[in-house]
Amino acid sequence: MEKILLKNIDKPGSHKLDNYVRNGGYKAFAEALKLKPDNIIQMVKDSGLRGRGGAGFSTGLKWSFIPKDPTIPKYLCCNADEGEPGTYKDRAIIDNDPHLLLEGMMLTCYAIGAANAYIYIRGEFVFGANRLDEAIKEAYAKGYLGKNILGSGFNLDMHIHRGFGAYICGEETALLESIEGYRAQPRKKPPFPALAGLYGKPTVINNVETLACIPAIIEKGPKWFSSIGPEKSPGPKIYGVSGHVKKPGLYELPMGTTLRDLIFNHCGGMLREDRALKAVIPGGVSAPLLTPKDLDTPLDFDSLAAKGSMLGSGAVIVMDESTCMVKAAFITNRFFSHESCGKCTPCRDGTPWLTKVLKRLEHGEGRPGDIDLIESLCGNIFGRTFCPLGDGAVMALRGALKNFREEFQYHIDHKKCMAS
Amino acid sequence: MATIKINGKEITVEDNTLILDAARKAGYEIPTFCYQADLMGIGSCRMCLVEIEGQRKLQPSCITPVLHGMSINTDSSTVASARAGVLEFLLANHALDCPVCDKGGECELQDMVHKYGPRTGRHAEPKFKFHEKDYVLSQVIIKNSNRCVQCMKCVRVCREVVGRNVLGALGRGDHQEPTSFNRTFLDCDMDGNCIEVCPVGCFMRLPYRYKSRPWDLKGADTICPYCATGCRMVIEERDGQLLRARAQLGVGLNSETLCARGRFGCDFVNSAERITKPLIRHQAATWAEALASVKDGFSGKEGKHIGGVAAATLTNEELYLFQKLMRTVFGSPNIDSSSRWNSDAASAFIHAASMNEGGVSIFDCMEADTVLIIGSHISDENPVSEYIVRRISSNRRMNLIIASPRAMKLDSSANVKLRHLPAAEKAVLDAITLVINAGKLSEAEKLKAIKDSKMVDLLTAAGVGVDEITDIAKRLSASQSVAIVAGTEFLRFPDGTSGLALLKDVLKNLGKKVTVMPTLDRCNQRGAWEMGVHPSFGPGYATAEKGMDTEALLEAAMRGEIDALYVVGEDIISDYPDREFARTALSKVRFLVVQDIFMSETAKLAHVILPGASFSEKEGMFTNQEGRAQSIRKLLALPGKAKRDLDIIRAVGELFDGSFGPKNAVLVLDEIRQVNPMYSDVSLLFNNKKNSDNRLDNRAALVKCAAGVLPAAGEFASKAVSSRMEEHSFALVTGSHLFHLGRFSRKSETLLGLIKGATVEICEDDAARLGFVSGEKVKVKGKNHEVLATLKTSTGSKSRVAFIPESFEDAEVNRFFRRGEGVPRVSITRANQ
């Protein structure tokens, strides 16, 4: 497939505005400024683009919820708080093709009528934040940002807001709280950000990869875009593969590529031929894992949901048979309890409890009845938390428990690992 | 309206009602930790989860509004298991040290676990501990974070209601700890509202620590004895000692909030300094001897040579009987309820604030498009009124305008804050009126009117800019309804009352709904006036033979014309704005009777001292600033031989007229109802009425319109100050301190622990200009008096204004004043210079 999102990242000087323009950049934006904003929203709707941050909500539909009243200030927030373990797709775009993101944001702002856009970038991405800062300065210098952009009368300012190392800031309303200077904890919904978001004003929050898709949609048309991949979730997708494969890395492929194709074709197969595939996490650690019997599942929103997992951020973590699932579950869970923001009771007090039990199991201190306890605690957390963080923790753990229950039991009975 | 089904029961509620409120209305209790009416909903504790038909997940009922046709289940097995699950999680790291926890017995977590919780614990892991020992967060707060349930009510009440923002959360996840910045000592209002809202024993009262168990306490539902906001609270005692005062959720206009004075200042009733027996010439005496002495002192004296001053901290019944005693038994019209301002000022204020037209609810005021607060340092003087203003103004679109010389905490909620010179309320109001009137003119005429010399004079007198005044005028003109909150500065500088009356009329003539709400600084000041403790009107503002007020009484005493003076609860020497004059005058009174609970400066001069009762030892009624009649309840036994003030006043009356009465408080109230049409419907039961919805407003308790019409007020000479001053020179103003008001607070151990010595507050810029830093000792020198005080700086106050609170004995602030001289000038220098 022709690369769309990662087409520039390997070129030398790809982060420079001049090079970006030379490769056809900002053409879509210049064209779009001649269109009506509503046309752009319609094009994105027609393209069938679904949010790449994890939830897979229709991007065009999200934009269309923004009130049209020109007297109300509106905002775009780019969610660049890429923190899901295993995920590193947005960083590639931010570091090496920042103008692609900026152009996508400009188009979005024009479509929804926003005069201010924020990029909420993960605190650890110092390099990326500097790159974006340079890129924004270049864009101002060349008149792509600021007042009366390209003589169209459209004004747009962009701001970078660096996070401070909290996973919860990737949750869109916690992200808004953080930009406003409050403690990053999710807000109640409704009202949804489309009506009352940043500073109480209509706000669109989109993932980096989602925004990077926009220029191509405007340039080549929604029909072209929707012809890529499956009908219900079309477009290109960056899969970030890590774990026990020969060639881990980012792969831009049509949505709906199967796991088998991805692992054994694109990634060159398992890292060690003598070790068989044991489990795959298809979309960041919140996504329940899949087993070799699911290898022919297409990696798209609906197919994975049908398998009881999710596409999430498209971070594929491959584990071979040497992996201890109890340890994997413990490490994953420890991440979630460490990152729990503390707002709601089930997640705040439930996930650390799970971690304590899993830690005991992992260290050979399991007690009979621990598996039942874990299942019961999972039941008390799932669906009762304020935001999806707690649900994610439970889904991951339940996935491991469902497929590898005997390993957990083995840990309790034999005080050691089944895998090693 | 939305019709919904709750547990199969159909109920119709207003749109956007929360499921929780709808369920409570339908009679189903839903447990909560983090929910609190009046605080922003956060939906975090997950105790209130309910099942909604057609929705996959349980929903938090405290932040989910109803939708027409919803079917909700609040007690299904799923809901029950969710509640038990949440409680199990809360207990996982909870300290479970109930036997040594002050909250044990009234802990919401205990109650909930008992009612909904799991019967056995499964958490067999090491518990996370924030700290080993409880730590002190302020002079009144001690904290144990290991018991916290993370409901964040403390943080929210601090930010949203009190407006202090000194609490926040440290850490994340199960390490999240609501506390002060880095757990350092709080620089806060010490109101303890965080303690009150805390459902568990996390925030605790330091003065009450390990003193009692809730079930050992006996309580009485009463009214706070400090300012005139009229907060309702429960005072509780054990073994005859008042141990704590607490507010109740959803009861009274204050709901769960109180200020530092109310919550921690009621321990003055326990003071060892209480007068416990009658004294004749400072020698202990029996009641019979004391009363005989009073009889001697008053016998054969003419009414015009007798006077009476009763404090505005007494109950309506006592005040009514007092004026009846003075008027009918002694034949004296010389009655007053304050020594700080004269009675003409009071009449003019009552007139300008339309107090004779009946009570005005603060909640109604806050429904206005524009609220103008002038002449009141509401943040320090009436803190809980301020909480109400802050809370409501942040939740609706309205203008809040604050005009005051001194900066205040409420400024942060204001749309416009105007800093004018002290005593310039009239100039400010007249200038606003002038601009509003000019609004009818054409643009050119308007400019001319604004530029005319009168306007310039007014602006100079007020020390404000024309833009600020026109901005305020514009906002007032654009409003359909206006509420003016007018405070005690109008009593200190009564010329402002005519400006207030004029603005009120001008706005009314423009067809606007105008309400004026007075804010007062004594718990029953309004009651005192309405009971007729005033030299020119009787109960219900009825016209009465004109007599002398405190000031005129002192002048007469100076001339040797006062034979007998009966002072109840008032300390004239400490309060009258010219201390030396008051002392000299009182020493010339031939027979001085003082009835009080403490040995005041005035009492030291008395021939006979009668020991009275504090608010906690008697029954009766207070009328708050809004005109809300609320009853106080007896909790404690009288100390020593002290008697209730009503009984003493009656006993004094009976010395001269055996039939003097009525004989008890209930009968006195009956008589008040008959005599005073404003009080014809009041009832002692108002106090105990609980509001079913969250409006916290009990309109039935508001007094009615008076029968008579008050005569128009006279003109007063302006006491305005000019803005030109020498380098170290300041205009001195006084008023209430956040922790100290009147004399009672100075006998409260807890409040004295917060601040003991006098402070002088000036604005930050002046301090910087003079090279002073906050906290250093400075010398404040006036023409007649000088004191050493601790300097306090405030951000955003008018330059060249110094403020010394009136309660501090060591400052004797009224010695700076001289009769007829207006606002005194003082110089402030380093203490060691």
Please give a structural write-up:
The complex is a heterodimer of chains A (about 425) and B (about 850). By secondary structure, chain A is an alpha/beta fold. In chain A, α6 packs across α9 and α14 packs parallel to α16. Chain A is built from 16 helices and eight strands. Helix content of chain A is about 45%, strand content about 10%. In chain A, the strands form two sheets. Chain A has a four-stranded parallel sheet with strand order 3-2-1-4, with helices on both faces. Chain A has a four-stranded mixed sheet with strand order 6-5-8-7, covered by helices on one side. The longest helix of chain A has 27 residues. In chain A, β5 and β6 form a beta hairpin. Chain A starts with 16 loop residues before the first helix and ends in a 6-residue tail after the last helix. In chain A, about 55% of the residues are buried. Chain B has about 850 residues and is α/β, with parallel strands linked by helices. In chain B, about 30% of the residues lie in helices and about 20% in strands. In chain B, the strands form eight sheets. Chain B has a seven-stranded mixed sheet with strand order 15-14-25-24-23-16-17, with helices on one face. In chain B, β16, α8 and β17 form a beta-alpha-beta unit. In chain B, α13 packs antiparallel against α15. Chain B is globular and about 85 Å long. The model of chain B has no long low-confidence stretch (mean pLDDT about 95). Chains A and B meet through α13, α14 and α15 of A and α2 of B.
